[in-house]
Write a structure and sequence with these properties.
- The chain is α/β, with parallel strands linked by helices.
- It has helices spanning about 5-10, 30-35, 40-60, 80-100, 120-130, 145-165, 175-180, 225-235, 245-259; strands spanning about 20-25, 65-70, 105-110, 140-145, 190-195, 215.
- The chain has a domain at about 20-145 and about 190-240: Decaprenyl diphosphate synthase-like (Undecaprenyl pyrophosphate synthetase, 3-Layer(aba) Sandwich), CATH 3.40.1180.10.
- A six-stranded parallel sheet has the order 3-4-2-1-5-6, sandwiched between helices.
- Helix 5 links the parallel strand 3 and strand 4 (about 140-145).
Length: about 260
Amino acid sequence: MSTLQDLEQVIKSNPGLPRHIGIIMDGNGRWAKKRNLPRVAGHNAGIESVRKAVEACGDLGIEVLTLYTFSRENWKRPKWEISALMQLLVRTINSEIEDLIRKNVKVICIGNLNDLPEPTRASMSALIEQTSGNTGLILNLALSYGGRAEIIDAVVEIANKVRRGELDPAQIDDSVFESCLQTAGLPDPDLIIRTSGEFRISNFLLWQVAYAEIYVTSTLWPDFRKRHLLEAIKNYLGRERRFGKVTEQIKEKTVLHNS
């Protein structure tokens, strides 16, 4: 077997695989600039990276893959780039939908779809509907998404429930708050991967990443392939996740669980 196959087999046999991986896909523009190409060429090249990440996560048995596809802040970009991105999204959905159905991938979306142009919104809604019965990898696309806006929306929903007498303020806890987030029903991300070497969360899943492991790679998103994903997961598997506890407590719990 090749080194890549060896790495994949080791990872697949590990019971501690992340249930939920989030990826901040960064570096399309820099990839294009290095090649004296327009920024749109970088976005086009990044589609193959999305395809490879979805395929790899499905093969590994990852439950959820959340891709930071388009942030609320991205609306500030030049209009021509936004238009090109929206058209690219429509073309990609139309070309990939049969493959996603065949691979049993269920597509969902967080963010405000109403912000999207009508053709993009219609294509995304059709993709979500046509894959709704699939039972494999959940591909969660963050579109026109912002973590702060999601938190504010959750606060408003809770406030309205209190105002209507449906919720006692004394009952508000983490589980109540999480039920009002757009990711309700999904496990929190265990691993966040950011490409292009930038050390920022960029308003991505601010509540949900409280205890996520963060992995930064200098690889630009259009160059990101299965090997890079496996290396990130391998790095994750080598970390000790304490969730506020100390090492001794984690080891004691492991011993009790295995005895």
